[in-house]
């Protein structure tokens, strides 16, 4: 019985060790698979984010350049139109002024020298006024162009920054969601694997215990049968011995009686 118990304990220990090794191997494999899946997902999502951001930046830069070019063209056209209008107005005013002055001077003073002097003075004044007006107009136009271009650039840069930030936030949120989903799925898979392995271990242990119990029962039955057979053999031997003894005793008694009867008969004859 002690040997049977030792065998049972050894078998159970071996089964437990094998099951533990299998569980460890399965858990290691699952962890490696999880890590690989997470790394692949993160790398793919990062590549997608980078590509999307680059595309968005390129598109926004192209749009900004086009807008700036269009604005500059429009501003240049406006400046040219304004300059032409100003020049035409100034020329018309010059002509009118010169004609009026000449007419007035000719009517009032008939000397040619005075007419020439007055005309020269008027022309100089008109030229100075034209230069001043042209400088002022150019400065105003340049200031307006600079202000408009700077404002457009600032607005476009702000739009670019907002778009890039929004795209980055959306992509980061998407990456986080994907990683969380992958981790949850992997955790669920690990839990399922562990549960299955535990169930298998329990089933194996139960089967081993049942087999061992059956073996023990068979051994016990065999021992009992052997004991019963031995006892029966002993009983038969004892019975045979007793019968033999009885027969011997009976035979001896009969022989004694015969001998005694013979002796008595001999004495009577004498």
Describe this structure in words.
This protein has 270 residues and is mostly helical. The chain has one domain (2-269). It is 98% helix and 0% strand. It contains two helices and no strands. The chain has helices at residues 2-108, 112-269. It is rod-shaped, with a radius of gyration of 63 Å. It is found in: Membrane.
Q: Give the beta-strand count.
A: 0
Which oligomeric form is depicted?
single chain
Helix content: over 70%
What is the structural class?
A: mainly alpha
Q: Strand content of the residues, in percent?
A: under 5%
Major sheet size, sense and barrel closure: none
In DSSP terms (H or I, runs of 4 or more residues), the helix count works out at 2
Distance between the termini: 77 Å
What does the overall shape look like? rod-shaped
Return residue spans where pLDDT drops below 50 for at least 5 consecutive residues.
none
If you compute it from the alpha carbons, what radius of gyration comes out, rounded to the nearest whole angstrom?
Answer: 63 Å
Secondary-structure blueprint of this entry?
Layout: H1 2-108, H2 112-269
Helix pairs in contact: 1-2
Short key terms for the protein model shown above:
270 residues, mainly alpha, 2 helices, 98% helix
Provide a short characterization of the protein structure:
With 270 residues, the protein is mainly α. It contains two helices and no strands.
